[in-house]
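Q&A log
Question type: sequence-to-structure
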Amino acid sequence: MFSGVFLFVMIFFSLSATKLPHYGFYGLSGLITLIALSAGQHNSPSGSDRSIRVWWPLAQKIYLALLIFGMAALPYWWGVAEALIRDVYYQTVWREADLLFKKHQISFLLFFVSCMLIFLVRNITAAILGSLIFAFGLQVIIVPTVMSALRDPIVRIAQIAKQLQAEEMITWRLMAPSLSYHAQRIIPAGSPTTGKLVALYEKDHDALLLEVTATSRENFVIETLWKSGGLQLVRIK
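Response status: OK
Response body:
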């Protein structure tokens, strides 16, 4: 049952149109329960293999220490991983998050110290301490930072949209349901034509130019009102 909770969340949100980092938390309850049941089985006296009960606590400590070490070293390896991303937009988001992580580089040194503490305390204390430290770093530092890199450009476009209420605004090739929420107005997907504000990915600017050229029968100018974080807002006039 618990594995079903985790797998359902993983499969459902993998198929969804929008994918945000915090969606993974919905499946953690089932995953944490599975880990707890596994740990309890290996640590209990009724375990069938005594050797497993001997090395299992040490394996737990090493695993947690490696997780925290990876998190502590994040400002050093995050930028390197950008080469694995193909989409230009997400490369930009990844780069923005990297800059934010580097601004708080000193705070990550505390996690290096935590790695050492895990080996200096009792087994059960190490498991609790390591889990809390990793959860804290993930929930308070890493996910909010990535979310900021994703959300801040959307919020900024929404603020501009609120200032330009009189002008018709659409999105083009941009999936951003939160844009309408932050702008406090419905911003539908539509066809780019003269007289409209258009929110889109920076990578699609040239495609937008071709689209308007193919559909417009009059001269036009695409004015860039704002761009950052892989997104931009333009006015076609």
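Response note: Residues 123-163 form the longest helix (41 residues).
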